[in-house]
Every structure is written in C-alpha cells, then in structure tokens.
Design goal:
single chain, 196 residues, mainly beta, five-stranded antiparallel β-sheet, 13 strands, elongated
Length: 196
C-alpha cells in the first residue's frame, strides 16, 4: 500500500478489443419490394418484414490471482500471489468446467506471511464474450391510422455460451475453474403492439 507503482496494471474493465454493430434489413418481398410484389395475399403473409441484429464481440476482462487466505496481517484487502519463475501462466487450451483450469494455478505460490505477492494487478485475462441478438418484425395496417406490429425477438440467437471469470483464488480447493456465464442461453419472445 506504500508503493503505488507496484500496484500498476490494467483496470478491471479494461477491454482491449471490442466490436459492436447493429444491422437492419428489409426483406425484399411484397408490395414496393423486388420479389413477389404482384399479389395482395402474398404481401399480407410475406411482405413488409424487417430483420434486425445486434452483434457484440469483445476480448476478456483482466483479473488478478490472489491468495485464498490472506496472511499479510492487513485489516482489509487481498494478498496477491507470488509468481513462480519459468512456469507458464495460462493452462493449455484454456479449459472450462470442472475438469480443467483457465489459468495455471501452479504458476503462483503463497508469499511469506506479512508480505505482499509480486503478481501484477490484473495480469491475466478471462475469456472473450460474443453475442448476437436477432428480431423479425412486421407492421400490419388494420384500420385508417390503427396499426398492429408483430415482433419475434431472440437474445443469444446462436445459443453460444460466453463464460465468466475463473476462480481467482490460489490455495487448497481452488483450481482456476470457470463456473459462470456472462451471457445466458438463448431466449425468445413474441409480442404484439397496437398503435392508433
């Protein structure tokens, strides 16, 4: 705590790479569109639909390996681990789940009691996040200025998991395992809206 330079490192929300985008596309069917534009019945069924998608991809958040039991004798805070020289920090393949570790816990060891570890602040990175939300919508004319909008929307439409940070504690019973998600499984909803 008396040497701020020893605590220098990325912030907890430091995302090095990120892409976010939104796409809107009017399907080319029905009245005033390129295809199937001659039939009023077809226009009611397949004409006028609009799709949209939101895409997010970003690299992982940083995290710090810390000791499960703090022996610094400080009243507050955590104890950073010591780095074992010559040992790789990341587990091979970045495993996820109960049978593997995201990072190599053997690369870190307990500092002497009453001391702080030398592992840098936020020196490791968690898994990346990716997500696509998708919707399909159409507005129907009902009567004069009365309209009905039908929309089908799905979040995480590809049902692709994005995982949370691993267990960052070093000590018995801790193995750097990831057990959480940052983006849940696919969910979908259908809703309608009447405007007048």
């Amino acid at each position: 705590m008396y040497d701020p330079r020893a605590n220098y490192g990325p912030s907890g929300f430091d995302i090095r790479s990120m892409f976010k985008g939104r796409l809107i596309y009017n399907l080319p069917f029905g009245k005033d569109r390129m295809f199937l534009n001659k039939s009023m019945v077809l226009d009611e069924v397949i004409g006028g639909w609009q799709t949209s998608a939101t895409l997010v991809w970003q690299s992982g958040n940083p995290f710090t390996p810390v000791m499960a039991n703090n022996t610094t004798y400080a009243q507050d805070g955590v104890q950073f681990a010591n780095v074992v020289p010559g040992v790789g920090w990341y587990a091979e393949g970045h495993n996820i789940g109960p049978n593997g570790s995201w990072f190599n816990v053997a690369a870190f060891t307990r500092p002497a009691p009453g001391t702080y570890g030398d592992a840098g602040r936020d020196s490791l990175r968690g898994p990346a996040l990716s997500n696509i939300d998708f919707s399909l919508a159409k507005t129907f004319d009902i009567w004069e200025r009365t309209k009905f909008e039908l929309r089908v929307a799905a979040s995480n439409v590809l049902n692709h998991p994005s995982f949370g940070l691993p267990d960052t504690n070093i000590g018995p019973g801790h193995s750097g395992v990831i057990t959480s998600l940052t983006v849940g499984g696919r969910s979908a909803q259908i809703f309608g809206k009447i405007s007048f």
